[in-house]
Amino acid sequence: MIPRIRCVLAVSALFASPALLAQGAYPVKPIRVIIPITVGAGVDLVVRKAGEELLARLGQPLIVENRAGGGMVIAAEACAKAAPDGYTLCSLSPDATSVAPHIFNKLPYDPEKDLRPIVNMFFLLEGMFAKSTLPVKSMKELVAYEQARPGTLNFGTLGPGSNSDMNRQDLNQILKTGFVGIPYKGGNLVINALVAGEIDLGKIGAYNALGPIKAGKVNLLAIAGSKRSPVIPDVPTFAELGIDPGARAWWGILGPGGLPDPIVRRLNNEFVQLFRDPKFSAFIDSLIVEVATGTPEEFAAFLRQDREAAGQRVRKYNIPKE
Known about the structure:
This protein has helices at 2-14, 18-21, 42-58, 73-80, 94-103, 139-148, 163-175, 187-196, 210-215, 261-276, 278-286, 296-316, and strands at residues 31-35, 62-66, 88-92, 115-124, 126-131, 154-157, 180-183, 201-205, 218-223, 250-256, 289-291. By secondary structure, the protein is an alpha/beta fold. Helix 5 (94-103) packs across helix 12 (296-316).
């Protein structure tokens, strides 16, 4: 009878629920983190750095997997359909969780049910960039230049219907301009295009362009935020200029729906503690972003509000569903 009992216990262990398994040691193997944009983009740098710092605490590495394209839906779907065991996570932004439900007829996941919020990491401080050869040094000069040549300036975005493209439309409405959207798969690619002179403008996270800013390869005309960044103190905020900068972009960590509470709590705690660490906090400040960490419940509530706001903007600009 003893062997049979042992066999039954072994089989039972194999089919134990994720919640029960979560009570044991976690993690016991590397954790995959899917990112919906290209290698070298700001959030890619943050997650890789976080993985380095969390290795000692988690005992396992974070393995970044970049899946760019599809309006960030490809990466979000892979995350949503992964096993809810804590070994597949994703770092997502408004495009995948807030905007996508309003612009895709058949979204292959339900952001509310299929993605479990773990922690919001940071808000981007987005800047208005111009290529270095464009003869403008301020937002006032930019508006005057465009209005004298309506519809001639190209504006890099993450594609039609993206949060960044709606920001372009916001600016066109507020400034009475006609910036033309050009799609790219990541903010760093927008910066590369600006440096190369392929496009004229872009409004993206300033952390994508620290090197080019310092080297004078792009001009930063204004930046989002309640106050000027100490990293670039000469650059005025949109608020100073009386300009609404549009919806705030953010990057958070999520997992598949059904991810057990103990795993969510463990991961949330580790990320919150990391972002409060003075050394890592200094790294974050150097990237010109604003820390946004909190509880999973706070992140979930924020996502619901952000999704509703995105829906209002989609309807405002009559963005057709795909």
